[in-house]
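Researcher: For the annotation table, I need structure tokens for SAM-dependent methyltransferase, MidA family. Please keep the output clean. Sequence:
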Amino acid sequence: MLEKMKHKRLSYAQYMELVLYDEQYGYYMKKREKIGRAGDFITTSNVANVIGHVFANLFIRLIETYDVPPHVCEIGGGTGRFAYAVLDQWQRQSPKTFSNGRYTIVEASPYHCEKQVEMLASFADHVHIVSNLTELPSSFSGIVFSNELFDAFPVHVVEKRNGQIYECFVAVEGDKLVEQYAPLENEEIAQYLAERNIDLVDGQRFEVPLAMKTFIFQLNDAIERAIIFTVDYGYTDEEWKHPLRRQGSLRGYYHHQLINDPLRYPGDMDITTHVQWDALRFYGEQVGWTFTHLWRQDEFLLKAGIFNQLIDHDDPDPFSEKSRYNRAIRSLVMSDIGSAFQVMVQQKKMNIPILT
């Protein structure tokens, strides 16, 4: 990895693209467990099958009540566990709409594609796995869902010093990675800061999600009509101004440990940053999407009827499958994980009440 970077100065976005997505070195591209106890992090969609069941109920209501086309597109499907939970619930609860239903996963990781094929083998007739948005069926209409997608997108990093904006870079010195700084010259970054009215204070670092901005335009080109669900962790414009966030949010996760230095364990560590929710709304509105709402995840799940998923049982064993399932439900609305995540809903050429 270091050999490939020698004699180069990479922007943080280029560095993240290399260590996360490079075919040879990229963390997400390697054939190894990343999600769950054996990996480096846990996603909320992998907490039992609860999240999948709750969203399946919502998707079914939208399809049955509002004639939303029965086509779900999940972007970044991970192991396929969320898709399995949705498809299983959909088949049992609404067999008529399921018979005409399609579930497309957009997945760049060959390793995760293999996992998804294995996980979803029983639903093979309804599942289509593609590597990028251009492979979606033409004029896609339906439901778009992602969970912890944008937090893994490459970002540029800037810092204000003595009244001037600098871009932060990554370089190799000897046998280690170091940061370097140069006055901002990237016009796309400058445009982002200007159009988003980003005003930094001295000493403040800030992540610039140009890849997310580009992706929104690409997704818009790939869909005709859709309800777009984005589940992730992030902050609004007001929240990122808080003094506690002046060092930015770029960090790593390695064997379930939070690593504040994103230059450690290159290629062997997940790197993530908090999503800028107002940027997602802003660029969505630029391409014509209507903003519906931004909920805290626990609030969203309660409104979506998560407690209806509780299973009645008399099993005293706290480690039984039913007990674990009920405990997972409570953890999603009563623990920190419920308040740390948010759910944003946007719509393209639709105007449908989501939680009524």
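Researcher: And a one-line annotation?
Model: Residues 7 and 59 are 51 Å apart (CA to CA).
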